[in-house]
Amino acid sequence: MNEWQAYHLSRNQFCPNLFFLAMNNVAQTDTPQQYDLRILCALRRITRSIALHSRQLAAVSHITAPQLMCLRAVIAGGPMTATAISREIHVSPSTVVGILDRLEDKGLIRRERGREDRRIVFVTATEGGRTLAAEAPSPLQKHLADGLNALPELEQATITLALERIVALMEQEGHAVEAAGEGSPPILEMPTGGAPPESGLVV
User: Which residue numbers delimit the HTH marR-type domain (predicted)?
Assistant: First the structure.
C-alpha cells in the first residue's frame, strides 16, 4: 500500500503528514498557538479574495460569481429544480430562488412547469445563458487553480480535506453556518443585505 492509498483509507482520519507539519511548527515557536483565530483570519482573507474576484467577474461578464456557478450547474445538470440546484452549489434554497430570479431577468435561464406534475418547476439554460457561461472566466481565480495544480496530489488532498473538515465543524448540529431564516455568519463580516452590486457579495 502506497502513501496515497493509505491516506485515503478514511476521509475522516487526520492526515499524518499534516499532523507532523503542525507539530514541527509548534516545536519551533514559544508562543501559544491560537488556531481558531488563525483559521478565522484565513477565512476572512479568502472571503475578501472571492469578493474581489466576483467584482472583476461582474465588470467583465455582467454576472456575479454565485450567478455563474448556478448557471453552470443548470447547464451541467440539465433541467433542475431549485432544490437540486441548492444541493449542487451548497447554497440555501431561498438564496437560489433570488439567484434564479436575476438570471431569468437577464434572459439566461427559463423556468418551466413539469409535464407530469405541474407543481414542480424545472430550470433550464437559454442559448444566451450557455454562450455566456462558455465565454465567462472561471469563478475560481486562475492563479489559485494553477497554484493548486502545481502542488503534489497528496498536498492538494490535504488542503481539500482540511477545508472540508472546517466546514463540517462549523455545520455541526446546532452550529450551522446558514440555518433556516438566518443570514450569513458574523465572524466572516458578510452583510446580510444592502450590499452594493459592485461589492461582489451580492448573489
Answer: 36-168
Q: pTM for this one?
A: 0.60
37 and 31 Cβ atoms separated by less than 8 Å: no
CA-to-CA dists, residue 114 to 79, 100, 124, 131, 150, angstroms: 10, 17, 12, 25, 45
Q: For residue 65, how many other CB atoms are within 10 A of its CB?
A: 23
Q: How many CA atoms lie within 13 A of 36 on its CB side?
A: 3
Name the grid cell of 192: 446580510
106-123 tens-digit pLDDT: 999 999 998 888 889 999
- Cite the DSSP H helix spans in 62-141: 65-77, 82-89, 93-105, 127-135
Rg for the chain (alpha carbons), in Å?
20
Report the helix count and the strand count for the chain, using DSSP H and E: 9, 2
| CA pair distance 61, 138, nearest whole angstrom | 11
- Out of 3.40.50.2000, 1.20.58.100, 1.10.10.10, 3.10.310.40, the CATH code matching 34-137 is 1.10.10.10
